[in-house]
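Work Package 4 report. The design task specified in the project plan requires that, given a folded chain encoded as structure tokens, an amino acid be chosen for each position. We show below one input record used in the internal validation round.
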């Protein structure tokens, strides 16, 4: 592609396409890889606004001879979503459900619609699209069609190929048509037209007739044959199904513009039976005895996957539900009534009783508990990546499939192969997957960092392919071949069928412009590696954060993202937060994954990165600009990417030695604690408030501060420390002394929250102490990347708190973001400091103090309803379980809102250019839910940011209250405070 004029191509695309055309360095870096081991920097990216826009884009690409790659969620594991090509990303705009025919159980969709979004839109019809991969919250239908995806539900519904009625497709030469099953009469009508479509169909029939015998002989007769092209769909027994042929072709043959899908009825009732066995192969051997009972899903997991999740503290409640054993089958039944599904489960258990397949059993028909256990299985890919204390693991052989009745034997031989190559240990690789259909998932500790390691990886892949071929299996059971398995296909299909694949490619794409180097004439499986023996990234030694979970290496931290794309989900169910900027922009660069890719490229490990200016990169700065530093990814990302920390580290270096380049808001917001301390010391709060809230002066103040035109929060007339200093101790203090941390936001803006907390803690039997000195956790300096100052401020604070900590005293935090600094950031800045370690261990939330450290405490009764906006940092670092327990004990019927980040996020919502994103985050769920709340419903918001956002935006006049205020109110009901 050296002779391609990328600038002229970009210009022509902008002329022809209504959507977005991006050939900038940052976009190309963000799209340089998917969820695989491979990396290829694209020529540019087009975000078509409609399918017709995609047609126009391909016409321009054809004019320039540029390769084309269609992309959906970008979560492919075999490298099929990365190429030096013009990437068409359908996921931002081409997301429509165009029509539904409930009677026919079909719908027509554009390729960018996300599976979960589609099924939510179909909810009223009581129909759904059947296949459901583990990435259902962010995978697109176009991507599912490209890969022939399956998921656990394929046990009932089959693969995508079994659920597609018709496709509207476009070839590289511009031929556009709908296709599906084709009767002889329909074929004759197509042939009669004598056009390009007729020529394609004529060649397909000739190819089918020539290779029919080999197709029937060499294609594995198993539920999960996904490798190769679906030539079997052309056979008469499949009605010459051209749409079926094109499903799973990985953007190498055509571009899918629209799809008509076949839908299945929603089965409303479910029950889950978990069977425990002594080992994973024994569990697999029970599968054939379970299948006759027609479960809708039959999944297997081994104890190594469970251990990985325990180490990473994932799904703790669900793991406690498992029966005895070192391997488990999760058997799900579904139907129209609870009685029906429970009866199915009991019949299965009765059939297994007194056989060699009898197991320890956990029987669940509570949907909430079922969902928790199902998350154990769905978390497999992320749970086995970057496990602390273990070698990094990789995809590559993560998707093989054999006949279910041979699965146990296959797993034993696969395990032996791991041992032969030195990959096996007591802790890995884990084995799990869709056992009811013989599909096995795993991540293997390949050494992809050295030449010898890559050579061993190649030898293993070749041997593993031989093993699966000997079982009559498929190299891929749902993820596709891409580059990982493309060159191995002759081992599975033989040379004749692989030749037929090449001829099929020539029918649709004779110039090899559609996703070249994948499936047919593939690149080697050890070529274009994202890492590899030649990977040599910059390894900065002057880091501010110490990155203790990444061996002190920023390169390893930037390499944490495995590309699973959980940060691209459209909702925040289950209290998740990640990723607010993606949820309101739909931009890859503004997802956790996109930013991680840019940071990875910034280190230029291959010497050809489009991001070539290191810490000074404006592309990385711009991608990080809309990161709210919510820390949601620290917990919600399966690989525990901590983008807030990476952003702070980057900004510290980006502006090092040139502070004049910083936005003014970094100084006004970053140094807020110092300004607040001065205002409090001078008792100047009222004067400052008058200056910042007088019409005319208020706008001048925001302009001078370099912030958005928002209301500046009011300073309190008296700080919390001043109030506390003039107030004598109260209560018995029978439980001992706790130190209440007077953070800047509580102390200088909302001291009433601290006052309420003091009264409640005293009522609970604690003596409350408070530092009299002006101290700070350094949060605002951290979030603005002024880490040198942050470390000095934090060091001073730790030294002041050291005597209390060394005596074992607890520190109670009221503001979640500041409390999270003590529990997380401080340790990551000073991992070797013993007092910092004590601070981390002895800092508790208000609710944790009253539930975990105050035995016998009974809160005052309230008996009210509440909706809770849980602060992002509380979700990510502190947890909300103690708050939930305390509220329940107080008689509060509290709903934890699935609202994600409120959008203010400390300084973020005040910074220039962020107001639109800030408001959009709040309007996504939080504000509509608050406006709709019944009168008398308390709005719990422990975070100062959350309360400020509610106060300043359209919350229907509702104000947020801290948990301490709510309990203090209850105390007041019983008498004077």
């Amino acid at each position: 592609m050296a002779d391609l004029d990328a600038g002229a191509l970009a210009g022509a695309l902008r002329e022809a396409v209504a959507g977005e055309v991006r050939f900038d360095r940052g976009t190309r870096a963000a799209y340089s890889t998917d969820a695989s081991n491979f990396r290829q920097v694209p020529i540019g990216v087009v975000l078509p606004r409609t399918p017709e826009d995609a047609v126009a884009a391909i016409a321009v690409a054809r004019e320039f001879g540029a390769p084309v790659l269609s992309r959906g969620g970008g979560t492919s594991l075999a490298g099929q979503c990365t190429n030096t090509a013009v990437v068409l990303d359908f996921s931002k705009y081409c997301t429509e459900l165009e029509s539904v025919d409930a009677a026919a159980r079909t719908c027509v969709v554009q390729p960018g619609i996300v599976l979960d979004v589609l099924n939510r839109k179909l909810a009223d019809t009581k129909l759904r699209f059947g296949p459901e991969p583990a990435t259902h919250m962010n995978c697109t239908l176009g991507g599912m069609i490209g890969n022939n995806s399956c998921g656990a539900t394929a046990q009932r519904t089959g693969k995508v190929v079994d659920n597609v009625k018709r496709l509207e497709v476009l070839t590289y030469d511009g031929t556009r048509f709908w296709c599906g099953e084709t009767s002889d009469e329909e074929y004759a009508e197509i042939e009669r037209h004598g056009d390009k479509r007729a020529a394609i169909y004529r060649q397909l029939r000739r190819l089918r007739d020539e290779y029919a015998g080999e197709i029937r002989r060499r294609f594995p007769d198993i539920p999960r044959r996904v490798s190769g092209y679906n030539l079997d769909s052309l056979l008469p027994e499949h009605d010459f199904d051209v749409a079926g042929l094109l499903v799973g072709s990985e953007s190498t043959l055509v571009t899918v513009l629209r799809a008509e899908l076949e839908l299945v009825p929603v089965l409303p009732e479910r029950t889950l039976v978990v069977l425990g066995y002594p080992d994973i192969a024994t569990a697999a051997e029970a599968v054939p005895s379970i299948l006759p009972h027609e479960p809708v899903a039959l999944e297997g997991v081994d104890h190594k996957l469970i251990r990985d999740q325990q180490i990473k503290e994932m799904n703790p409640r669900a793991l406690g539900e498992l029966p005895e054993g070192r391997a488990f089958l999760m058997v799900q039944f579904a139907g129209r009534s609870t009685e029906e599904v429970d009866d199915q489960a009991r019949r299965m258990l009765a059939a297994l009783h007194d056989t060699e397949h009898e197991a320890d059993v956990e029987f669940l028909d509570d949907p909430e508990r079922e969902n928790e256990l199902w998350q154990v299985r769905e978390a497999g890919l992320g749970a086995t990546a970057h496990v602390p204390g273990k070698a990094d693991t990789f995809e590559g052989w993560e998707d093989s499939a054999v006949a279910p009745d041979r699965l146990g034997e296959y797993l034993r031989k696969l395990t032996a192969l791991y041992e032969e190559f030195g990959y096996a240990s007591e802790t890995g690789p884990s084995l799990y997957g869709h056992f009811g259909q013989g599909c096995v998932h795993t991540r293997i500790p390949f050494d992809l960092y050295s030449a010898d390691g890559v050579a061993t990886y190649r030898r293993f892949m070749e041997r593993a392919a031989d093993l699966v071929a000997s079982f009559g299996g498929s190299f891929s059971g749902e993820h596709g071949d891409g580059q990982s398995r493309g060159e191995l296909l002759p081992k599975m299909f033989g040379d004749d069928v692989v030749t037929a694949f090449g001829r099929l490619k020539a029918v649709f794409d004779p110039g090899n412009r559609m996703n070249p180097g994948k499936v047919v004439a593939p690149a080697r499986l050890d070529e274009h590696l994202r890492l590899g023996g030649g990977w040599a990234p910059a390894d900065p030694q002057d880091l501010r954060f110490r990155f203790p979970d990444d061996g002190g290496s920023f390169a390893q931290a930037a390499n944490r993202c495995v590309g699973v794309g959980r940060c691209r989900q459209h909702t925040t169910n289950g209290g998740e937060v990640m990723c607010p900027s993606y949820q309101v922009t739909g931009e890859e660069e503004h997802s956790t994954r996109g930013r991680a890719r840019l940071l990875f490229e910034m280190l230029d490990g291959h010497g050809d990165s489009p991001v070539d200016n290191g810490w000074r990169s404006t592309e990385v700065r711009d991608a990080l600009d809309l990161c709210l530093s919510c820390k949601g990814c620290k917990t919600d990302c399966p690989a525990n990417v901590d983008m807030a920390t990476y952003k702070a580290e980057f900004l510290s270096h980006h502006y090092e030695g040139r502070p004049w380049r910083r936005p003014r808001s970094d100084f006004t917001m970053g140094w807020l604690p110092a300004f607040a301390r001065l205002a409090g010391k001078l008792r100047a709060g009222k004067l400052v408030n008058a200056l910042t809230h007088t019409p005319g002066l208020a706008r001048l103040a925001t302009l001078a501060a370099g912030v958005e035109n928002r209301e500046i929060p009011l300073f309190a007339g008296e700080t919390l420390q001043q109030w506390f200093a003039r107030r004598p101790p109260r209560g018995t203090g029978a439980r001992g002394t706790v130190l209440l941390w007077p953070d800047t936001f509580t102390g200088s803006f909302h001291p009433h929250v601290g006052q309420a907390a003091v009264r409640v803690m005293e009522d609970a039997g604690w003596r409350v102490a408070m530092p009299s000195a002006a101290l700070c956790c350094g949060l605002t300096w951290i979030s603005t990347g002024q880490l040198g100052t942050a470390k000095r401020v934090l060091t001073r604070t730790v030294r002041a708190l050291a005597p209390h900590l060394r005596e074992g005293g607890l520190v109670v935090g009221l503001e979640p973001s500041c409390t999270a600094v003590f529990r997380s950031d401080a340790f990551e800045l000073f991992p070797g400091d013993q007092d910092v370690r004590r601070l981390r261990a002895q800092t508790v939330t208000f609710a944790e103090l009253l539930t975990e450290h105050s035995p016998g405490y009974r809160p005052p009764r309230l008996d009210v309803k509440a909706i809770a906006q849980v602060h992002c940092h509380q979700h990510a670092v502190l947890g909300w379980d103690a708050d939930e327990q305390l509220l329940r004990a107080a008689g509060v019927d509290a709903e934890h809102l699935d609202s994600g980040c409120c959008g203010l996020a400390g300084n973020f919502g005040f910074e220039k250019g962020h107001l639109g994103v800030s408001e959009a985050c709040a309007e996504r769920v939080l504000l509509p839910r608050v406006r709709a709340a019944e009168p008398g419903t308390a709005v719990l918001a422990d975070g100062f940011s959350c309360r400020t956002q509610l106060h300043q935006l359209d919350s229907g006049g509702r104000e947020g209250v801290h948990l301490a205020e709510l309990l203090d109110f209850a105390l007041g009901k019983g008498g004077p405070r």
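The longest helix spans residues 196-218. Validation will be extended to a larger panel in the next phase.
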